[in-house]
Amino acid sequence: MNKFNMADMLGHLGSLLASVMFVWAIIQQYFPYNVRNFFEKYSQRFLTLFYPYIQITFNEFTGERFKRSEAYSAIETYLGKTTSMQAKRLKADVIKNNTQPLSLSMDDHEEVADDFNGVKVYWSSGKNILKTQSFSFYPTTDEKRYYKLTFHKRHREMILGEYLQHVLKEGRDIKVKTRMRKLYTNNGSQWSHVVFEHPASFQTLAMDPVMKQEIIDDLTTFSNGEEFYNRIGRAWKRGYLLYGPPGTGKSTMIAAMANFLCYDIYDLELTAVKDNTELRRLLIETSSKSIIVIEDIDCSMDLTGQRKKEVKEEEEESDPKKPIKPPENEGKTSKVTLSGLLNFVDGLWSACGGDRLIVFTTNHVEKLDPALIRRGRMDKHIELSYCGFEAFKVLAKNYLCIQTHDLFERISELLGEVEMTPADVAENLMPKTSPPDTERCLKSLIGALEAAKAEAERKKLEEEEEKKKELLAVKAGEVKVVNMVENGEAKVANLVENGSNGSV
Ligand SMILES: Nc1ncnc2c1ncn2[C@@H]1O[C@H](COP(=O)(O)OP(=O)(O)OP(=O)(O)O)[C@@H](O)[C@H]1O
């Protein structure tokens, strides 16, 4: 009996559904769009009288036809984490990133809940399929995806303000962290890029640990400082000057900075930039969350000489008596000037928004114009120097996976006496066999350090000999002069004596 009733009920339900669908199909087919729209509009209004929830739709494409909405993309990324825990149907996409190979988002018509400060909100995904007007035999469809946010109307203010800001910021931050980072280089006025996959990190960077921590803290404060920079009315940028002999890790540190902050790198070849206008254009094209690097700044332009010339020109220009003469550069290809570079560092271009680090490197800090590297322009001066024992320990850990060894004491002694760059120390620690023969590598380093020490001592001796010789030469010269003076005096005395005797 029960069985029969059930089958009967299902039969009725089936025919009811079929009828509803039939009627809906008829309405869609024959009722004009305006009439349907009218019913939909008023039924919605009627429902909102009793429905305490508010809905916001974020469409994938807004305004410009092929431009994906930034908000949609940030929401998609934000929901990625929640989605993988809650939704039953997910969409996966491959992203080329070491830390996270797959990006997950919820499939169409899924719903997930999110909790913010104890308030529950619901996100659902959907798509509208529009039939495009076309004369093709196969009608084409246009899919418009969207996310819908639903929340109770009593939380309106908080959701529209704080929560949405939080979602967009989190989404953007996750995106920055998981995106493939790029290394841009300029060929004249054009940037071209490759994927940036340098493995350097602060962990593998060999330097004094206190200094390293200081840099990490500084970078963290800077990257979280949007509000602070806004408050004090300064462009959100920071200048770093890295200086030290070749092979001390300046380029490696830039790579470590980019990996730490998840920023892109713009490696600016200043010598390829025609003039200040081109420099400005290149800078305006840089994106936020990036490091703009000018390596070997002292070789990129004659800063000292040029600065003097510029100062002289400025002085001459301000002299009213001076006749006006045509500019020297007219008709010639001009170069970037120091003042152009200073404008760039000072952030005249900061109107393009976002945070940027500017990093200059040099092997000869003393050659740079003080105006270029004064605080406020280059906020942090970092000296990368010869390898100390602490830096060596980092390299030993990286290259040989050891934290301590009997030979460390000797190495520590030698490093205190000899100047060797981390690049040279690393080269000696490079395993030549597999598995690495730790002792052999350490002994190779000791051998190199002893050879360097002997060489330094030999040079010192040579220099001392040279100095001695110079001193002797000076002394010999002095003796000669004294002799000459004495001879001269004797002659003069003779003459005087002869003169007083009346003989000429
Ligand atoms: N402090 C360091 N920590 C770890 N590795 C380092 C360090 N310094 C140098 N190296 C190693 O030496 C190589 C050369 O270093 P890097 O190019 O960073 O030096 P640099 O100071 O930029 O030199 P240059 O002034 O010639 O450009 C790197 O590939 C890296 O492997």
Automatic annotation (TrEMBL):
Alphabetized InterPro entries for the sequence: AAA+_ATPase (IPR003593), AAA_N_dom (IPR025753), At3g28540-like_C (IPR058017), ATPase_AAA_core (IPR003959), ATPase_AAA_CS (IPR003960), Mitochondrial_chaperone_BCS1 (IPR050747), P-loop_NTPase (IPR027417)
A Pfam family reported for this protein in Swiss-Prot or TrEMBL: AAA
Coiled-coil portions: 442-474
Co-factor(s): Mg(2+)
GO biological process terms, semicolon-separated: response to stress
Stretches the record annotates as Disordered: 305-332
Keyword presence, Ubl conjugation: no
Leader peptide range in chain numbering: none
Keywords (A to Z) from UniProt: ATP-binding, Coiled coil, Hydrolase, Magnesium, Nucleotide-binding
Catalysed reaction, written as an equation: ATP + H2O = ADP + phosphate + H(+)
Entry GO MF terms: ATP binding; ATP hydrolysis activity
Biased composition (Basic and acidic residues): 319-332
Superkingdom as given in the UniProt entry: Eukaryota
AAA+ ATPase domain residues: 236-388
Family: Belongs to the AAA ATPase family. BCS1 subfamily.
Protein's UniProt name: AAA+ ATPase domain, ATPase, AAA-type, core, AAA-type ATPase domain-containing protein
Species classification: Eukaryota, Viridiplantae, Streptophyta, Embryophyta, Tracheophyta
